Structures are given as C-alpha cells and as structure tokens.
Amino acid sequence: MRLILSSLVLVIVLAAGGGSWASDGAEIFATLKCGMCHKPDKKTAAISLAEIVQTYSDKAKLVSFFKGEKKPLIESEKWGMMRAQLEKIKALPDGDKEALADYLLSFK
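Above: the chain sequence. Below: its structure as tokens.
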C-alpha cells in the first residue's frame, strides 16, 4: 500500500510539473535520495556508483533496468529496499531515466 501511495504521489508531482524533472540526472539522483545509499567510490549501505558503472557500462542496459525490462546485473542483499526506489524510477519519463543513467555513468 505504501509503495502504491508513493508511486501515486510521484506521478501527481510529475504531472503537476509538466511531467519532467528538467532531465537533470544529478537533480533526479538527489531528489530520489539515491545518494543516501550509493556513494561514488565506496560500498556503504549499497553498491558504489563505480561498481554500477563497471557493470552497466552501456547506457542502454542501465535505462532498460530503470524501465523494469531487465533484471539487475548486480546481486545485492539490499535488493528488497531497492525495489521501492526502482518503482519510483520506472515512473519517470524516459528522458529522465536517460538523464539519470548519464549522471551515474559519469562516475567512471
């Protein structure tokens, strides 16, 4: 129920704002609070951005994951927590998913 409400709130916010987060990957990353768990070069609460870049070096793979079309390529004991975040990412417009992927892949 909580996930449904969170997704609904996100959809309403996106609709009110014209359906976009201005396609700024850094802003999306910050707004969704991804940085609370994903740090640039060290594993803390979740895998590091460097590990994400190594695994998803191709933008298309990462965007497909964001759309829910591909299973995660990185096994994590924290996957249960990430599912709720992935639902929020899936609700984003495609341009925002691409902007988020570009931002993450900038941590090479």
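Helices lie at 2-16, 25-31, 49-55, 59-67, 79-90, 94-105.
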